Amino acid sequence: MQDLESKTLWSQISGKAIMGDKEGSKLELYPSQQMTFTEFSSRFPNGLLLAKGTKGLPNSNYASYFADLTKLGIFGRVDKYRRLRGKDKVVGIRIDNQQAALAMKLLRRKGMVVVDKFEPPIVVTHNDSTGSISAFSLGSLPSDMRKKLKFKDGRIIVKKTDVAFDPVTGVIVSGEGDNLESLPFTTAYWFAWVSFFPDTKLMK
Amino acid sequence: MHVRRHSFLSALLLAALSVTVVAQREKPKETKVLGHTMYTLLKPGEIPAILDPEFVSVDEARKVYYDDEPLMVVRNGEEVKGYSTWHLDHHEIVNDYINGEAITVTW
């Protein structure tokens, strides 16, 4: 990325200024979620959507690149990546100087994964049918509850309690307590994520 | 015969065009950045960022959004905004505000 004021170049994946007057500065990651338009419209009927003029094609402009496992970025043609295939998708999380990557295949299988590498631990959720991906800190939960999470009936529940959370927004929907705090995450191909963060913990 | 000749001329024209395209394609510029090589393929602005985004309601969006169109969603207080990643394929960056806070949405 290049900012138009200082002409500084910024890394899209790390948020760091890599060349120019702002070199060494870092942009703060902002929490976000991913989901389909149908899911958005049912959850946020008063929400706003980026105007896009015409309807366009019903897929990504890069669909053929996504489907081609032999193309890894613009120049990459050799899948030299060991822990996953280079074109496997991951959800990458960065907190301070620590990183974790969760394979999308794992999230599809489980629906919810707790990452206790971080302190406090975090939880990442995914629903393949609605395309939703979210990440939350478990910092608002008492420590004895953090190891009792389960994904059941479309909710994050705390076993042996009546506490439950919405897996997309983190809002508490049953019991007493605070909402879960949304965290930033990055969806990326493994080859891209591991190139920037080679020491990342991988859950697959 | 005319058809064959026409095809041949077309093939020649295509071959000539291909050579021209190959000849005119610039080698990516290489720059050393923090010990790594950065390849520049496009000039800044060739993928036009959205600098002054406009938004529509869910009902308006229904006319141009597909049901399964993937979105990045940002929330702050009562404000919720969705950005089509299919649309961002053409722009990659949106300069925006959420609840008064400046953000850049990148894809």
Explained architecture:
The complex is a heterodimer of chains A (204) and B (107). Chain A is built from 4 helices and 16 strands. Chain A has 204 residues and is an alpha+beta fold. In chain A, a hairpin with a 6-residue loop joins strand 7 (112-115) and strand 8 (122-127). Chain A has one domain. The longest helix of chain A has 7 residues, at 37-43. Chain B has 107 residues and is of the alpha+beta class. Chain B folds into 2 domains: 1-41; 43-107, no CATH class. Chain B is 29% helix and 36% strand. Chain B has 3 helices and 7 strands, in the order αβββαββαββ. Chain B has helices spanning 2-24, 58-61, 85-88, and strands at 29-33, 36-40, 55-57, 70-76, 79-84, 93-98, 101-106. In chain B, the strands form 3 sheets. Chain B has a two-stranded antiparallel ribbon. The longest helix of chain B is centred in the N-terminal third of the chain and has 23 residues, at 2-24. Chain B is elongated and about 45 Å long. Mean pLDDT of chain B is 81; it is low at 1-23. The interface between A and B is large, with 42 and 48 residues.
